[in-house]
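In response to the reviewer comment on reproducibility (Comment 2.3), we provide here a single inverse folding case reported in full, input and output, so that an independent group could reproduce the run without further information from us. The structure tokens appear first.
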């Protein structure tokens, strides 16, 4: 289990809505927590948040990074009879939307809606499982009967999330909406908390970046890494646990829930930084898993490593089942191991730490 302070922060961070492009409520929670043990906390114009532990102006700076946004939906259209059509923010899967409840957020507060699911009796295929719907086929019922009534409650462009929050299946397994990647914001926050406690052993400066708009192209990470140009970056995001039925391991690799954080190899992942992470894992007896990045990592790492003259970067991922669904599922064992690995890697860095191949 996590300590009380961490557990309550994790729960608040995950349930606070933060869909792509609308991250400010979640960022407020993150910044408030970080301000308890950082030397400085700031934001840029689009809302990416940065916390800093400064040891000495003359030493190297490492950045810990996660993205602050979750996938979601947005109000696209309202019909004359008051039904709301959605579009996706990031990679939201339209085939799992029907029959679920959503929250629509705006300045006036929060509206609950149900995603209509035409009764099986009325479907053309009486066995259910009709044609896979696209977002344009999905409609939300907010309990009104006209466009005018609907417009008193919601407007075009309001962000939407599922109503799911988080739950523990047992002491070990957490499930919920938005683990991708609010749990990454949690990881870098807890690593900062550890580093602050062990500041006398810390030989580098540390930035923690919780970046906006990853799910649509890694934009927040680009802006902030260009601005601050750290000497290296350790990024964390979720990765696919491939240990559930129907996944081809030959195609997608072998990652087990509970098997430890997954170290990524190749592409944007700098070999010397990856090697340092592996050495630290071995020394601290942290079990890890391995993945090949192939072309892109599909995370903010891709946005960070090539800024200006290059930032040696590495991605350490948290295994996650059912990514981009409201029942994303992760293991606390992996979560704690990831925080420890990140913390210990930073503590292993020398004042003049540089990476070359
Ligand atoms: Zn992610």
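Designed residues, in position order:
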């Amino acid at each position: 289990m996590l300590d009380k302070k961490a557990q309550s922060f994790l729960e608040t961070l995950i349930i606070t809505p933060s869909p792509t492009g609308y991250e400010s409520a979640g960022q407020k929670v993150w910044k408030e927590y970080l301000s308890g043990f950082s030397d400085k906390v700031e934001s840029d114009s689009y809302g990416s948040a940065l916390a800093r532990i400064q040891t000495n102006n003359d030493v190297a700076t490492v950045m810990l990074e996660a993205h602050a946004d979750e996938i979601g939906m947005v109000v696209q259209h309202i019909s004359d009879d008051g039904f709301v059509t959605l579009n996706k923010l990031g990679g939201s899967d339209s085939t799992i939307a029907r029959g679920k409840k959503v929250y629509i957020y705006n300045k006036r507060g929060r509206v609950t809606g149900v995603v209509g699911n035409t009764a099986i009796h009325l479907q053309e295929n009486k066995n259910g499982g009709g044609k896979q719907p696209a977002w344009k086929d999905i409609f939300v019922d907010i309990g009104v009967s006209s466009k005018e009534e609907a417009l008193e409650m919601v407007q075009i462009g309001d962000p939407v999330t599922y109503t799911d929050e988080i739950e523990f299946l047992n002491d070990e397994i957490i499930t919920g909406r938005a683990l991708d990647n609010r749990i990454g914001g949690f990881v870098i926050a807890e690593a900062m908390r550890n580093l602050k406690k062990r500041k006398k052993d810390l030989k580098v400066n540390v930035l923690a970046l919780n970046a906006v708009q990853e799910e649509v192209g890694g934009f927040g990470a680009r802006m902030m890494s260009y601005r601050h140009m750290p000497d290296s970056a350790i990024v964390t995001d979720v990765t696919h646990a491939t240990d559930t039925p129907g996944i081809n391991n030959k195609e997608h690799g072998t990652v087990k829930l509970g098997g430890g954080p997954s170290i990524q190899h190749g592409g944007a992942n700098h070999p010397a930084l990856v090697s340092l992470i592996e050495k630290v894992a071995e020394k601290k007896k942290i079990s890890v898993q391995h993945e090949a990045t192939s072309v892109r990592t599909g995370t903010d790492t891709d946005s960070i490593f090539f800024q200006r003259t290059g930032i040696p970067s590495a991605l350490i991922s948290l295994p996650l089942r059912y990514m981009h669904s409201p029942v994303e599922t992760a293991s606390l064992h992996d979560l704690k191991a990831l925080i420890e690995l990140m913390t210990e890697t930073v503590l292993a860095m020398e004042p003049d730490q540089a990476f070359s191949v």
